[in-house]
Write a structure and sequence with these properties.
By secondary structure, the protein is an alpha+beta fold. About 55% of the residues lie in helices and about 15% in strands. The chain is built from 6 helices and 4 strands. The protein has helices at about 15-25, 40-50, 55-65, 70-80, 85-100, 105-110; strands at about 1-5, 10, 30, 35-40. A two-stranded antiparallel sheet has the order 1-2. It has a two-stranded antiparallel ribbon with strand order 3-4. It is globular and about 50 Å long. The two termini are about 25 Å apart.
Length: about 110
């Protein structure tokens, strides 16, 4: 997916790296045998927030998919100034649903 941010086309990829980035930032943390652990589930936690159109979830999704080519501030500003925020949510959700890496999680959330 491409978005024009600050006059430049930026690429967003919703693959395995996207899911890994979400697990780091939105994953479920806990403790096992006295050790702090991240149990993943970032996409599982993110999807309901995207469906209810939580702007911070949208920003997190875009940042996780950006592959370092755009800053969090640039994404936040893009969302704040978006003329079609609802359309952006739909576009991101559709990209996630079509992602090979994300399809099993999305399918299980529907069940």
């Amino acid at each position: 997916m491409k978005l024009k941010i600050n006059g430049e086309d930026k690429l967003f990829i919703f693959g395995v790296k996207f899911i890994r980035n979400l697990d780091k930032n939105r994953g479920v943390e806990g403790e096992q045998n006295g050790m702090k652990m991240n149990f993943g589930m970032g996409l599982t936690v993110l999807m309901p927030s995207l469906v209810t159109q939580d702007a911070s979830a949208l920003a997190d999704a875009l940042f996780a998919a950006a592959k370092g080519n755009v800053t969090q501030d640039e994404i936040d500003n893009y969302i704040d100034n978006s003329k079609n925020l609802e359309g952006l949510f739909k576009q991101v959700i559709n990209e996630i649903k079509e992602s090979n890496a994300a399809q099993p999680v999305v399918k299980n959330l529907k069940a």
